Amino acid sequence: MTRVEMTRTTDVTQPLRIALAGLGTVGAGVIRLLESNAELVTARAGRPLQIVAVSARDRSRDRGVDLTPYDWVDDMTEMAARDDVDVVVELVGGSDGPALALARNATGHGKAFVTANKAMIAHHGLELAAAAESAGTSLKFEAAVAGGIPVVKGLREGAAANAIEKIYGILNGTANYILSTMEDSGADFGATLKDAQELGYAEADPTFDIEGVDAAHKLAILAAIAFGSRVNFDAVQCEGISRVRAADIAQADALGYVIRLIGMADVETAQDGARALLQEVKPCLVPKGHPLANVTGATNAVVAEGNFSGRLLFQGAGAGDGPTASAVVADLIDIARGETGAPFSVPSDSLEAVQPAHSGHRIGQTYLRFAVTDKPGVLAEITAAMRDAEVSIESLIQQGRANHGGEVLVAMVTHHGPESGVSKAIELLRDSASLTAPPLVMRILED
């Protein structure tokens, strides 16, 4: 495949003309930011940033910003063909549909494209990157990962000289708000989720947030940038937080940990040079001394470990109109300056199709919690399964005692050992009549 070099001549005497699709909280935030910081943005971009056209589903809705200076376009996909548009900003959302059509139209017409759409980049990022490179234009998506935190730019530019050995972090503010609120209040998951919805921290349908899908979208994008691999969302192993109980939070605290939903990716290299990429989103026990343990509320944080830079921590607001608008406009400033480059750090035709890795051989400690019937012999059954799977138990606690015949919780922490042993033990107990629910398994994050 022949790649068009992404070097363009930029006329800095003319404004960067922008078409904005999507006028929700972030879209309105972009307009407010450009109005409030116009002088500052112009100075840093080297020329004005000027919105010329906007589009949204409901023209009559009051968004708290003045839209009269801009042309209204009913069909947002038509904005890409306008001669008075240099860059298209997409803030509509959705992995397919109008957002994807707009992205394809923008690159097809040689227009730069900026998006906050993590789902679209996770599913179609490779296609869109190749199209942008072929057209000699820009594809930028800083706002798609961790809101206002400049982690995409940090990896793609600031850490560009490093081989990234591991990238992990708290990638969803809703899940983090729920878990940290459970720590403070002692309430269980259901009640905390309801409160989060009433306060606006969780959507009416919170599935993508609490089941880890949103974090998985972001992790797939970060892994591609960090490791030079093709975006592969389907390979992300994903588990959410809906089964975490208040008792797990309390037990973790007693052991010196907090529970966080962690997205983690790293690459294994075999002796023959073949690489395998592990991508996981799962609740983990995080030592209280680890930087991620102090990340509370709706905050996001990403840790990247470079072979020369060492540990890098990016932390800040992971969502909201202001932080996300900040990331969108940062991308626009780069485009205004004429700064282009491969969206995923290296040209799309150089991105490697890395095979998915499995974590079974990895060595570490694991927290397991069993909900079991309150009857004699249950504990012996569980420990026998651990013995047969060659899993060594460091500590074991029966968490309270229900009325006779009720449910009790049994929690344990393993010694360091291969994760395959824990999986084998769980499989041995899969058909046990003593278990009232599937076991909860959480990796213990190393310091």
Class of secondary structure makeup? alpha/beta
The coarse overall form would be elongated
The first-to-last residue Cα distance is: 44 Å
Q: State the major sheet.
A: 11 strands, mixed
Oligomer: single chain
Radius of gyration: 24 Å
State the helix count. Answer: 13
Which secondary structure elements does this structure contain, and how are they paired or packed?
Elements: E1 16-21, H1 25-36, H2 38-45, E2 49-55, E3 71-72, E4 87-90, H3 97-108, E5 112-115, H4 118-135, E6 139-140, H5 151-158, E7 164-170, H6 173-185, H7 189-198, H8 207-210, H9 213-227, E8 237-238, H10 246-255, E9 257-269, E10 275-287, E11 299-306, E12 310-317, H11 321-336, E13 355-356, E14 363-364, E15 366-373, H12 378-388, E16 393-399, E17 407-414, E18 417-418, H13 419-428, E19 440-444
Parallel strand pairs: 1-2, 1-4, 2-3, 4-5, 5-6, 8-10, 10-13, 10-19
Antiparallel strand pairs: 7-9, 7-11, 9-10, 11-12, 14-18, 15-17, 15-19, 16-17
Helix pairs in contact: 1-11, 2-11, 3-4, 4-9, 6-7, 12-13
